[in-house]
């Protein structure tokens, strides 16, 4: 049979009905047929070779040996077709406008093929062979349509117009694919045929590059097959794929998000993996991935929504991306997914919304979209712990935005939910900070009824460092009136704050010193601090003039409140307070000179008393 080949052309899978599974470890191609015939090409014509059943009997395990014409032979064949096709097209008497466009595109083919064939690896890469076969098929179709038009044998004018438009699109695809093939870099690899088994790394890498190139060339069916194969490879060895992923591959994946449903779902699966890896964030965003991801969250299948939400979660980390997500209408579908999604979708969308809430100017918009109610609901009943953590952070951000949002959080029952959330064994910062932000929005009696202070004492003793700092800050804010200070003194919080003065965290030390400086005016608390063996010494240690010590001004205020006691002044002097205060006085730290004068005067009196 002259010049016959078995076709393994994934690029033309819609008419060959073949699905290829690349096995990078064995170097083999496994072919699964779902139609009746094996197709062969004989100088551009197709013929059936037999039934599927007979083929399966002869080929166990669905493996075949692929026979090919060489790329040079296909190139010669295409070059021989072009003059005759152009001649026939120019003689067509009707549809002249469409044929003029088609002729113009056919005339561009020789230049593209010249660039392709001049590559040193032209004859070694199967993609070149497949590209030439596709061009030959398109030219044959052009010849057939030209003959039908010339003989007026077409079924109808509208049908022929549609066929000519489709032909024009195929020529565009051929021209584009030819240029993309040159630019992908895959031709730079002397790719070994995939059916040659090899245990070396080179065939695997070459095969992967070819697979990635298929995302950019061919029709949608070919790209769908490439997506399926790439997903399999990523599941087996993601680390091998990532270094090979170029911007062109990322751009192709983003474009596939606008394809048919099954292609979109495969593409978003890969994009979610890329986004989670963090390797391609800038490329994904610059290639326009966010708008189609938002549309998938809004109207995709359950699986597509989940993968899109995972990708958005990762990409929304930066403020610029968060703004773009909101600008493309992403807030509403993400909130809806929080309500209706499964555990993974819910957690991913909650994390994305948490990231969006981190942008100050978007918080009011979130409130208008119903984020407060959803956050409180998920804080109470989120399926995963991570989802509840995200919502605590969201409430922290929303409570910092405006009084109207704080009032909404209170009216929607957010305070009891936040208090219940911090009752756990290791309270975290976001919920405690949200409560601190809400303190002015709730009256003292309500806070007392809700046991705020005992819960803050629990946080001071058992919470994370961030939570402890937020709790001390909340106590400072709560104790703004004499009655509130008295309640703090009765709650057992003071000893925990004295201990917090020794924290390794500068923020914790500062918050504790500020709270103590505000509370020391209350008689019971002042006596408790004087009697505590560590309160004065810990505060003196915070008089250090080091610029990194932000607690020094509060330490001065706290010590000033305790300096009415001779015993406390003696402890201050004995631990070097005078030396510290001289430096702070030179730095003009508020109250340092007054406290210094008080301690020096007391020291002088003590000297004369001893004499």
Automatic annotation (TrEMBL):
Coiled coil: none annotated. Residues 77-186 form the DUF7032 domain. Keywords: Repeat. It comes from the Eukaryota. Pfam families: Arm, DUF7032. ARM repeats lie at residues 288-330. InterPro entries: ARM-like, ARM-type_fold, Armadillo, DUF7032. Gene3D superfamilies: Leucine-rich Repeat Variant (1.25.10.10). This is DUF7032 domain-containing protein. The gene is A10p000190.1_BraROA.
